[in-house]
Amino acid sequence: MKYSSFINMKILCRLLVLALLLAAFKASPQTPKFIHSHNDYNNLTPFYKAFYNGFNCIEADVFCVNGKLLVAHDSTKLSPYRTLKELYLDPIIYALSHDGSRQLCLLIDVKKDHQKVLDVLVQELKPLENHLLSKDHPGRLKILISGERPLPSEYKNYPGYLFFDDNLVNPHTKAEWDWVGMVSLDFSSYSKWNGTGEILKTDREKIKYTIDSVHTNTRKPVRFWGAPDSPASWALQIDLGTDVIGTDLIDQLPAYLAKRSLLKPASVIIN
Description:
The chain is α/β, with parallel strands linked by helices and 271 residues long. The chain has one domain: Phosphatidylinositol (PI) phosphodiesterase (TIM Barrel), CATH 3.20.20. The chain has helices spanning 3-27, 48-52, 84-98, 114-124, 174-177, 201-218, 231-240, 252-259; strands at residues 34-37, 57-65, 68-71, 104-110, 141-147, 162-166, 180-186, 222-225, 244-247. Strands 1, 2, 3, 4, 5, 6, 7, 8 and 9 form a nine-stranded mixed beta sheet that branches.
């Protein structure tokens, strides 16, 4: 074999190896930034079960009643003994004080009267100020306001440690986008898939386009609420680049992610 032919063969082999590596890289799953415990307060052990299962985003729905924040999905299930402070804020102080590596997002879904809720929340968060993430402080606890929330033009009226969920309905200035911590979208607006079998190709493409557009234009993490809560749905969301995988199955999702080597509880992130 001539020397030049040998060189060409080596180049071809290297190119083939490179192509295989690139194909493997493109096919590799993306690690979700958040695993989200949806309606976490419905668990027998709110907060702790999700936290020690590796979740780094935990949801509490709240109402303001007589100057206190109570946790429930609707007003018929309110109890004066189920306060945000006792179910979440006090446990968070304990957990973060005893685990210096963990970072956490507390998603507070405001069911009504956001002005009252946020005024009380600011007071109730005072004991956690050293832990709170803001634009000026590298804390380990991110507070994200969802549900009923202020208009983007009003974000500036709140402390810098309050971040806001967004649904792509209202226009934002660049400064207002700085207050947004996540973009959460209704899965049923993009697909009627129930989590079994194959999703329609057109639906898959629509979801992928939306995720990529949010990433490109806002650089914010994306969550789909109301998505099917099944391994097939988790796989789809991960493969399409969804940043936040939500579930009511807080034993099963971490096990699924661990099996795919996509969950490392000691190094969960919030940014």
